[in-house]
Amino acid sequence: MKARPNQRLSSQAMAFVLAGGRGSRLKELTDRRAKPAVYFGGKTRIIDFALSNALNSGIRKMAIATQYKAHSLIRHMQRGWGFFRAERNEYLDILPASQRVDETKWYLGTADAVAQNIDIVDSYNVKYVIILAGDHIYKMDYEIMLAQHVETGADVTIGCLTVPKAEASAFGVMAVDAQMRITSFLEKPKDPPSIPGDPANSLASMGIYVFDWAFLRDLLLRDMADESSSHDFGNDLIPAIVKGGKAVAHRFADSCVTSGLEDEPYWRDVGTIDAFWQANIDLTDFVPKLDLYDNSWPIWTYAEIVPPAKFIHDEDGRRGSAVSSLVSGDCIVSGSEVRNSLLFTGCRTHSFSTLDHVVALPQVVVNRKAELTKCVIDRGVVIPEGLVVGQDPEEDAKWFRRSEGGVVLITRDMLDAWERAH
């Protein structure tokens, strides 16, 4: 692809989003949907963050590789992301694992998911490819990362978080020299290397990679032919480039988008029940760590046509109220008290019920006199009248999933079992 003068790098790039993961640490929340399709923040889904970053960065060509239980993800893409127009050179392709290369092969690894679609990426006629994970919450301008990639002449540029050295053992960690060139890539090391000049911190991989397409294409073809490879970026391709090519680290802090309210770069892997609950509840803070109200960097999603939220009844003990909470459209808070909670679209809470530190996914119904504390309620669950959750850990654990951090996950199947026993 020949670049025109003054052409933004993002217009010569495509985003390839890896969205096939189950996210098994989210337990029953991913029984019916892939992790990138899990709801987040009141009206969005997790994948909307990576896609919105790409769109807001100026990228208009995207591909989403899906595999595990992809139906709700694909439906969300069709409903919420159908505004790309081919006549404007905009493309959003959904690439399910469809045995295109071999009738016995699904996507074998993250690199294989791209390799099986080389012909489709070729058809986009792009110069750069940004590989993204579809399951993290953050705001980032990829144009800045692309500029660094071109400036340094790197074979691969890897997005990196600055994390305290003591916590870095949970990540893939980069050892870098003073010029940010990566000298080694270590998966979950016991003694993580620190950043030159910053002994307290280490650089952890975000799973974001920028390549020249011609370089990556050649690499993928070689990797496909290697039977000993696990066909994975983190396990195979990146270590090979670190060893024999030029891999450069890009600090997330350099391209993180903030509105001025956030006091530090915000990135979250909401991959466990505790992390998922915490990140949603954090949004109810007086000054949240992630500003969703920044209209200059909107998080695009499927915007349902729904009526506004409504609060009814005003008598002692039966007052429809919400304090330090996010309440989405089409919610009716009827004579119930909602505190430090997040209600997704279409929730109903009935008289004399209380919700405290609750994340309720869409279309949840909380019946009268229910008392719910510190829980996540899956989509469409109907909470029975008088149910008390979050006060007796042993009783909670009998019927529902109670996390290490004391968050209770409630799903339809769990409630069915509870109702059969009661």
Please describe what this structure looks like.
There is one protein chain. The longest helix is centred in the middle third of the chain and has 12 residues, at about 215-225. The strands form 6 sheets. Strands 1, 4, 5, 6, 8, 9, 10, 11 and 12 form a 9-stranded mixed beta sheet that branches. Strands 17, 18, 20, 21, 23, 25, 27, 28 and 29 form a 9-stranded mixed beta sheet that branches. The protein is α/β, with parallel strands linked by helices and about 425 residues long. It folds into 2 domains: about 10-285, Spore Coat Polysaccharide Biosynthesis Protein SpsA, Chain A, CATH 3.90.550.10; about 310-420, UDP N-Acetylglucosamine Acyltransferase, domain 1, CATH 2.160.10.10. The chain is built from 11 helices and 29 strands. This is Glucose-1-phosphate adenylyltransferase. It catalyses: alpha-D-glucose 1-phosphate + ATP + H(+) = ADP-alpha-D-glucose + diphosphate. Homotetramer. Involved in the biosynthesis of ADP-glucose, a building block required for the elongation reactions to produce glycogen. Catalyzes the reaction between ATP and alpha-D-glucose 1-phosphate (G1P) to produce pyrophosphate and ADP-Glc.
